[in-house]
Every structure is written in structure tokens, then in C-alpha cells.
Amino acid sequence: MKKKGAPMYFPSENVNSHMWIQFLELMIKRGDGPFLKKSGYVQSGFVSAEDKPLADTIQLVQRFFPKHDTPHVFPYNGYVVLIFENKAEATAKRLLENLHDYLRKLHVPADITVGTAAMEDNSCPGSGIRKTCREAEELMKSTFFHRGKKYLSIDDVQTNRVVPQLNISDEAKTLVSYIHTLNSQKVNSFFARLEAYFLCSGKSSLEVRQECMVLMIEARTHVVRKIPALKEELGTGKKIFDTIMGHRYLATIIEAMAEVCLRISECLSFLSTDARLQRVVSYVENNYSEKLNLKGVAELFYYNCAYLGKSFKKHTGKSFSEYLDMLRIDAAKKMLVDTGMKVYEISAAIGYTNTDYFHSKFRKYAMESPLAFRKKGDSLAPTEN
């Protein structure tokens, strides 16, 4: 155990992180340091304080513990590390929980992780310290996903499940459609689903931040393209970057993104009649492959069905059904030329459940059958040398 009055020696904070563990092991092997000389349990706690110099955080941590029961406290790789000797695991965790509350009262937000208690013995000196410190340090990577935890242990980390990868470009279009329809409930549900996905994805905090930035920048692009007046409200790419990188936790990033989208949606309700109709047109253009009809879209945008029908034709020059059909047929033409999809597959992909109905619509707008159009497109394609 500790020698009474033995000074605690620490190498410079600039020492390579792996050398700290080696230092701890060396103290055990030499047998003249303040750490365990004989068999016993060790357990580590790691503390990371936001916007607080490391030396100041160490002082606060040391001040928290009574002098007769102070764990070893030292800096390591940007963290404050606590090493408990032969302390019951439940007691160590309770102390870390109380430390979190103490720092919070001092307005010092902090993340705390705790490694599993490990055995030290003479047969392999330093193995216990290595194990518990590495575990606590690795857990620091997961604090991003766990806002509000007083301390994070291995039991708190969710086992990653196999989840389908999200297509961020498609998700951006979905989000924009919810913004355009002023549907705050769907916007909130979208971000709740996004947060749940990230929690199970196994992605790093940096990967999550990057995907959030791509999502918001693409959503911004879609909205500004249709409604330039909202450019200032959406902010610049740098503002989006600063917002996402400036938050410590996934939950606060999600809240910030949802707040921006809801604010934009609220602004849309005050736009002119033409701008409001353009939102409807944009929604149809982004969702033509869905089961759309004038009545459903009118309800979605809080219009009288007959009024929307007349206003839509005045705004676009075409009736709702004609405009929808033309969007679908244009998409079908592209698929016929660019893909090898069968005609019935294309019909379903663009929103027609009945292939015969698709054939009749295609002939109406293209003046020929889908297969004839495809053959003509093939004959015009450049040949390879």
C-alpha cells in the first residue's frame, strides 16, 4: 500500500500517452512508489472537463476527495485520471457520481468514465492498471452519445446492432418535404429516428458530425433553390459547421438541427401566395413516386382542394394530374435509357401501380410505347471503339 509521506511523482504532461501506462507499471515493478506492491484491485476513473485547463480540473478533483481517502490523481493524455486501490467497485462509482455533481455545482461540465476493477498481482505487474485505464480511456469516445450520464461504464455502452446505412441525400429530400409541409411533428420524428440510427450505427463522433453536416447542407441547398428568400435564415455552410462542431453531445446536435428546420418551416407560413404554391410544386417534384393526389396534397398544405387545383394550374400552366404525370414520364424516359430495368419495374418506381395505365400515359406524353422509346434511345447511344 502507500508509504506514508511518499511524494507522488509525475512525468511531464507532454509525455506520450502510452508512456503513462508504462510509468504506472514501472512504479509497481520497482516496488518503491506509492502504488500497490502486492496483490490487490485497482480501478480507474477518467475525467474530461469542458473549457477548463487540465491543471485547474486536477485541483478541483483533489479538493473534492477527503485527504485521508484520496485516490491517485494525475494528468494523462488530456484527461484527469483517478486510480482507486482496493476500493469496492460500487463505492468507487458512487464517488465518481458525487464528483460529477460537485463539478456541476461549480459550473464545470465534465464527462466521467470508469474502467472495470482489475486485479494486480506479482506474476504480471501493471496488467490491472493497463486494463482498467485502457477501458476508461476507450469509453471516452462514447461520451458523445450519452449526454446526462454522471459516469459512463462498459455496462452503459449500447451493443452495436447491424442497421441499414442511411442515404443522406435521400434523407435530406425527406426532411425538406416535411419542412415544406409545415409538419413539425414529422420534423421532430425525423430527428428522433436519426438520433436512434446514430446510436446503433457504430460510427465515431467525427463520422456522425460529418453526416449531420452533409444532411443540413444538402437540405439547405434544396430549400434555397426553391425559395431564395430563406437563404439568410438558413445560414452559411460555415455557420452549419460551427453549430455542429460546437456541440459536445449528439443529443444537442440533433436538437440544434431540429430547431433550425422548425424555424425555417415557421417562416414558410408567412411567405407570399406564389411562394406558398412553389412549396407545393417542390413537394410534388420531390415526391412524385409516392401515392399523390390533389386531395391529399391539399390536406397536407392546409388548402381547400378546389382552390388548390385552380391555383396550381394558374401557377404552373398545367393541372395537378398533368404536372404529376409529366414528372413521372420524364423520370421513366431517363430510366428507360440509363438503366436495364423492366417496364413494370419502372412503372412501380415512378408511382404507377398499374403497368397498363403507365403504358397509356407514356403513349399520351411520349407519342410512342416505352419499349419503342428505349430502342430509339439505344440506337442513338454512341458506340464504343
Top keywords for this entry?
single chain, alpha+beta, 17 helices, 58% helix, 3 domains, 385 residues, disordered N terminus, Alpha-Beta Plaits, Arc Repressor Mutant, subunit A
Could you describe the 3D structure shown?
This protein is of the alpha+beta class and 385 residues long. The chain has three domains: 17-156, 2-Layer Sandwich (Alpha-Beta Plaits); 168-274; 319-378, Orthogonal Bundle (Arc Repressor Mutant, subunit A). The chain has 17 helices and five strands. It has helices at 17-30, 54-64, 89-105, 127-139, 168-180, 184-201, 205-226, 231-234, 237-245, 250-268, 273-286, 294-300, 305-316, 320-338, 343-349, 355-366, 370-380; strands spanning 40-49, 72-76, 79-85, 110-114, 118-120. Strands 1, 2, 3, 4 and 5 form a five-stranded antiparallel β-sheet that branches. A hairpin with a 2-residue loop joins strand 2 and strand 3. Helix 1 (17-30) packs antiparallel against helix 4 (127-139), helix 6 runs antiparallel to helix 10 (250-268) and helix 14 (320-338) crosses helix 17 (370-380). The radius of gyration is 31 Å and the shape is elongated. The chain starts with 16 loop residues before the first helix and ends in a 5-residue tail after the last helix. Mean pLDDT is 82; it is low at 1-17, 29-33 and 380-385.
